[in-house]
Amino acid sequence: MPTRRATYFRSVFTMTARTKEDAAIYVPAERTLSVLRDAVQKCRGCDLYRYATQAVFGELETERNAAKPKVSIMMIGEQPGDTEDKEGRPFVGPAGRLLDQCLEEAGIDRRNVYVTNTVKHFKWEARGKLRIHKKPNMQEIHACRPWLEAELETLKPRLIVCLGAVAAQSLLGSDFKITQARGKVQQVEGFAPIIATLHPSAILRARTDEDRHRDRHILVVDLSVAARYLSRIKNRTASP
Questions:
Q1: What region does 37 belong to: left with phi over 0, alpha with psi -120 to 50, or beta?
Q2: How many domains does the chain have?
Q3: In CATH, what number is assigned to the domain containing residue 56?
Q4: How confident is the model at residue 235 (pLDDT cuts 50, 70, 90)?
Q5: Range of 121's domain?
């Protein structure tokens, strides 16, 4: 019986076989963050680079200049937002500030979390003078996947937290539903354990204050699950 990962990647292969553009040829063989971060700026794996200010690569605050930092948690979002696109850093806009607050409430030190996105360029549409987020399509997600794989290979995190459906489905398959399986540890061949939860930007877009408060609580609860799971891993490792 094929594993979930094998089934998923077979569907990805079918998709990418029809895709003319892919980022793989732009990803260097050397697996260090500084080399990857420089190389991603030259990526032409899809057309999103044409409209973005710059590519936004992942980041770990406490070891920003380390080649291969030790990472306990890798958090993966969908794509950079308007602020991230301008500043060149992930999760520094309103969604990032909300994530910081929720991480603190869950007992996770934000400085020790590597944050990145499934897609490295900001996809947007103009509404007056504003640039409004536009969801990347499957071709763009798969075209950018080699960069995410390079980050995973370089960092080898103990735990992956997917923020939102795009990130979750990119690793767990298109059938994965956050509403049904959020906050649960998913074991997928070839990856560290994965926990999926809501994206903070989705919380900010909630229609009512009640919905926003409920979804924020869900995010904190799921992050608390991640914190406890990571603590158990560390305790097992430390045991003689």
A1: alpha
A2: 1
A3: 3.40.470.10
A4: confident
A5: 4-238
